[in-house]
Amino acid sequence: MLTIQYKTKFSADAHFLVIAANIEAALAANTLPVELKNYLKAELEQPNTNAVTTNYLGRIASVLIVDESKELYVLKEQARQHGASVADLVNQVKGTELEITNVSNATSLALAAAEGAALVSYQFLHHKPSAKNAASLTTITVVHSNTSAKEVERLSTVVEATYLARHLVNEPVNCLNASDLAAAFQKMGKQAGFSVEVWNKTKIKQKKMGGLLAVNAGSVDEPTFSIMHYKPKNAKNKKPYVLVGKGVVYDTGGLSLKPTPNSMDSMKCDMAGAAAVGGAMFAIAKAKLPVHVIALVPATDNRPGFNAFAPGDIITMMDGSTVEMLNSDAEGRMILADALHYAKQFKPELTIDLATLTGAAAAAIGQYGIVGMGTATETQKQALKVSGHNVYERIAEFPFWEEYDELMKSDIADQKNIGGPYGGAITAGKFLAKFTDYPYFHLDIAGPAFVAAKDSYRGKGGTGVGVRLLFDFFANLY
C-alpha cells in the first residue's frame, strides 16, 4: 500500500512538485541546482504556460502556477490532475518517493496534488502475474504547506478506502460473488472498527425481501444482505445517517438480456454503489469521525437461469406492496427498495443510496458527474453538492416532480419497475422513493463508476466514485 506522509523540509535530491502563485515563490520553495532553476524559470516565462515538468538527471521536477482568483474547488482539481501527471512520470523512471509542497495562499492544494498522485498510482494486477509495469511510487510526502500531519493521515485513510472500493469493483464475479462481497465488508469492519452483520438466504426469506429474492431467483449463488454499523461514543447525531449501496455483483440483464459488447462485458461493476458505501464506512470508522452511520447492502447477481423472474411477473416487496416487473434489467431498484424499506426502522436523519442504476443517467451527463435527486432537505442537498465540488465528484440534481409518479403506475400492481422511454433516471428514483418515509437522496453513479479509458487520477476501470464524496460530507457535518 502506498504511504502518504508529512514532514517539514524537502530532501536534497527527491522528485518534487511545487505549487505556487508566482514563479519567484515557486523557485524559492526548494533548494535547486542553478541549471534546473534557470530552466524552470525560462519555461514558466513562456506565454500561456502555468506548469512545467522535467526530468533533470533522473529527478522529476515540476512546478504548477495557480491563479488564486479562481474558486478553490477548481484549483484543487487542477492540483489533483497535475499531481497525477507528475506521479506518472515518477513511476516511469522507477522513482519511489514524490515530495509536494504548496506555497500559494490557496489552502489544501498540496493535499489535493498528493491525492491525485496517490490515486493515479493504483493498479489492479493481482490476476496478472506476467505484469512488469507495477507502479514504483511507494511514498508521497507533503512538505509543510500550511497543513498538518493529521490532515495528511486523514487523506491517506481516504485514499486507502478508495483503493479498497476500486479493488472490489474491478474483481470479476467468478472471484467476487455476493457472499464474497459480504466477507470483504466483514474484513474491512475488523480493520477499521465497525460491526458487520450478514444475512444469508434463509434470513432474507424470513424477512420477506421479495425484491432481492426475485432478482436472485435466476442465480446459483445465494444473495446476502449486509448491515454495517458505526456508532462512536462521541457521535454528534441523535438519529443515524443511513447509506444504501446497490450490490449487483454481475448483471446479465436477466431474461431482458443485455448485449455483450460495451454493456454486459463490464457488468462486474454493477456493485460499485456497494463498494462505495463499504469504502466510505471504512474511511469514516478508521478516521474516527464523530458520526453515527449505518450502511446497508443487498447483494446478488442477476442471471437468466433457473426460475429467473420474467417480464410480467408480480413481485411482493418487503413492505408488502406489489411491483409489476416489466424489465428484468431494471433489477437494481428491486433490491434497493427492500433495503430502503428496512432503513425505516432507524428513523434516519438522512438516507443516501448510491447505485449504478440507469443508462439514462450516464447518457444525460456522461462520466463527468453524478445524477442526484430526492426528498432530502435543501440544507442536506446543499451539503452534498458542496462535498461533490470539494472532491470533484459533482452532483447534477434532476427534478423530482409529481408528474413522474404517473409514469410508474400499473394496472395490475401498486407500481411498475420501469416508467417508459423518457426520464428514465428520474422514474427510477421515483420508484425508490416509494419505499421511504424519511429524508432521502438518490445518487446514480452509472456514468463515473467504471471508465473504459484512463481519466487522469481516476485511472481505467473502477474509479471508487462516492467514497471521497461521502467521507467529505460526513467530515464536514459537525
Report a brief summary of the structure.
36% of the residues lie in helices and 21% in strands.
Shape: elongated
Treating each run of at least 4 consecutive H or I residues as one helix, how many helices? 15
Low-confidence stretches: none
What is the distance, rounded to the nearest whole angstrom, between the alpha carbons of the first and last residues?
30 Å
Query: Under the CATH scheme, which class of the largest domain?
Result: Alpha Beta
CATH structural architecture of the largest domain: 3-Layer(aba) Sandwich
Give an overview of the whole structure.
This protein is of the alpha/beta class and 478 residues long. The protein is built from 15 helices and 20 strands. The protein folds into two domains: 3-147, Leucine Aminopeptidase, subunit E, domain 1, CATH 3.40.220; 159-475, Aminopeptidase (3-Layer(aba) Sandwich), CATH 3.40.630.10. Helix content is 36%, strand content 21%. Strands 7, 8, 9, 10, 11, 14, 15, 16 and 18 form a nine-stranded mixed β-sheet that branches. A six-stranded mixed β-sheet has the order 1-6-5-2-4-3, sandwiched between helices. β15 (370-374), α12 (378-391) and β16 form a beta-alpha-beta unit. The longest helix has 22 residues, at 149-170.
Q: What is the strand and helix layout of this fold?
A:
Blueprint: E1 3-7, E2 15-20, H1 23-28, H2 34-44, E3 51-56, E4 59-65, H3 72-92, E5 97-102, H4 109-120, E6 139-143, H5 149-170, H6 178-192, E7 195-199, H7 201-206, H8 210-216, E8 224-230, E9 241-245, E10 247-251, H9 272-286, E11 293-302, E12 313-316, E13 322-325, H10 332-342, E14 350-355, H11 359-365, E15 370-374, H12 378-391, E16 395-397, H13 403-406, E17 415-416, H14 424-433, E18 440-444, E19 450-451, E20 461-462, H15 467-475
Parallel strand pairs: 1-6, 2-4, 2-5, 5-6, 9-11, 9-14, 10-11, 13-17, 14-18, 15-16
Antiparallel strand pairs: 3-4, 7-8, 8-11, 12-13, 15-18, 19-20
Helix pairs in contact: 3-4, 4-5, 5-9, 6-9, 8-10, 9-15, 10-14, 12-15
